[in-house]
C-alpha cells in the first residue's frame, strides 16, 4: 500500500486573528476554496494565528471551511502581532507567502490567483493589494454618522455576499493608505505577498514594533520591501481587502485619538529606523496585474481623471 504524498502549496497566507468573533468567520470564508476563483484548493494554504483571543478561536470554524487551513494558537501572546506573523511565516510551506496583519479584512475572489501571478514576475516582486473599508467613507467618519455593525451587516446582505465577492466594491470606500492608489503611492498593503527568499532577506517582521496592534509595523514592512534593491511593486488591479468594523486600534477610533497614536508610533519608528516615517516612493513604476471588475470601474475612472487633472500641460510652440 503506497502512502499519499502531500502536495506542497504554491502560496501560503498568514492571517492574524485577535478577539474578532463576528469578523473572523467572514474573513476566513473569503479565503476559502469555496470563495476563491481560478486556483485549486491544493495550490494554497491559509495559516490562521490566534494571537491570544479570549475565548480562543474555535477550531471548528477552521474545520468547516473548504481548503487547506491551519490554526496556530499563541497563549502567551504579545500586544503586537509581529511575533504572531513571524510564527506564521516560519510555518508557511509555499514559495510565495502573504501576510494579513488584520484578520478583520475580507478579500476579493481573485486574491490568490493574481497574487501568485504577480509574485512570479520577479524575485523581488512586492505584490500589494489596495485597502478598502466597508461603508460609505473612512470608517471613523462613517461612525460619526451612525455607521455601526448592524448597518454593516445590512450592507453585506444588500449585495447578497458572499455569492459575488467583487460586489464588495459597491459598498466600500478606499482607506487612508490607499486612496487612488493605482496612480499614487500607497503607504501599506493589508495583504502583502513576497517570495519566500525575499521574506528571509528582510528578516520577516520587526518585533521591535511592540505597540498594541503593531503601531507602524505594517507600514514599516511595506516600506522596507519597497526600498529593497531591485524591488518591483506589483499592484493587483481588481483585488482588495475590506475592513470590517470591529473597534480597531486605529481604524475605528476618533481622529483625535488617531493623532495621539501617531504621537507615540512616529517617535518609535524614528528610533528604530533612524529617520521619520514617510510614504515610500518606489524606484520603478508599478506593474499592474489582474482585471477590473465592473463594480469598481467607476472608482478607477474617477482616480484616473483626478490624476490627469494634476498633470501640467507644457506650453505649445506658436
Structural write-up:
- The radius of gyration is 19 Å and the shape is globular.
- The protein has ten helices and ten strands.
- The chain is of the alpha/beta class.
Order of helices and strands: EHEHEHEEHEHHEEHHEHEH
What is the residue-averaged pLDDT? 92
Strand proportion: 15-25%
Structural class: alpha/beta
What's the arrangement of secondary structure elements?
Elements: E1 11-17, H1 24-30, E2 44-50, H2 59-63, E3 68-73, H3 82-91, E4 96-100, E5 105-107, H4 111-119, E6 125-134, H5 139-144, H6 149-158, E7 172-174, E8 192-195, H7 196-202, H8 217-226, E9 232-243, H9 255-273, E10 287-289, H10 297-309
Provide keyphrases for this structure.
318 residues; alpha/beta; five-stranded mixed sheet; 10 helices; globular; disordered C terminus
Quick gist of this model?
The chain is an alpha/beta fold and 318 residues long. Helices cover 30% and strands 19% of the residues. The protein has a five-stranded mixed beta sheet with strand order 3-2-1-4-8, with helices on both faces. Strands 5, 6, 7, 9 and 10 form a five-stranded mixed beta sheet that branches.
Amino acid at each position: 500500500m503506497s502512502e499519499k504524498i502531500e502536495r506542497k502549496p504554491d502560496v501560503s497566507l498568514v492571517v492574524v486573528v485577535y478577539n474578532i468573533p463576528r469578523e473572523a468567520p467572514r474573513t476566513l470564508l473569503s479565503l476559502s476554496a469555496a470563495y476563491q476563483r481560478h486556483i485549486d484548493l491544493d495550490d494554497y494554504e491559509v495559516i490562521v494565528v490566534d494571537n491570544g483571543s479570549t475565548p480562543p478561536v474555535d477550531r471548528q470554524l477552521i474545520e468547516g471551511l473548504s481548503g487547506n487551513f491551519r490554526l496556530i494558537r499563541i497563549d502567551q501572546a504579545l500586544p503586537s502581532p509581529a511575533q504572531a506573523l513571524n510564527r506564521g511565516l516560519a510555518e508557511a510551506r509555499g514559495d510565495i507567502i502573504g501576510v494579513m496583519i488584520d484578520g478583520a479584512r475580507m478579500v476579493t475572489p481573485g486574491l490568490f490567483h493574481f497574487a501568485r501571478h504577480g509574485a512570479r514576475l520577479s524575485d523581488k516582486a512586492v505584490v500589494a493589494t489596495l485597502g478598502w473599508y466597508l461603508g460609505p467613507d473612512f470608517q471613523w467618519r462613517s461612525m460619526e454618522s451612525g455607521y455601526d455593525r448592524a448597518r454593516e451587516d445590512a450592507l453585506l446582505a444588500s449585495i447578497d455576499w458572499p455569492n459575488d465577492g467583487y460586489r464588495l466594491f459597491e459598498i466600500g470606500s478606499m482607506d487612508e493608505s490607499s486612496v487612488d492608489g493605482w496612480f499614487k503611492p500607497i503607504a501599506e498593503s493589508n495583504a502583502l505577498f513576497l517570495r519566500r527568499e525575499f521574506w528571509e532577506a528582510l528578516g520577516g517582521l520587526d518585533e521591535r514594533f511592540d505597540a498594541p496592534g503593531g503601531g507602524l509595523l505594517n507600514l514599516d514592512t511595506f516600506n522596507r520591501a519597497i526600498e529593497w534593491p531591485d524591488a518591483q511593486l506589483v499592484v493587483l488591479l481588481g483585488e482588495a481587502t475590506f475592513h470590517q468594523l470591529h473597534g480597531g486600534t486605529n481604524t475605528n477610533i476618533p481622529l483625535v485619538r488617531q493623532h495621539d497614536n501617531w504621537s507615540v508610533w512616529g517617535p518609535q519608528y524614528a528610533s528604530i529606523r533612524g529617520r521619520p516615517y514617510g510614504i515610500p516612493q518606489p524606484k520603478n513604476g508599478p506593474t499592474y496585474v489582474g482585471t477590473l471588475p465592473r463594480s469598481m470601474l467607476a472608482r478607477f475612472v474617477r482616480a484616473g481623471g483626478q490624476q490627469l487633472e494634476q498633470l501640467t500641460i507644457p506650453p505649445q510652440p506658436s
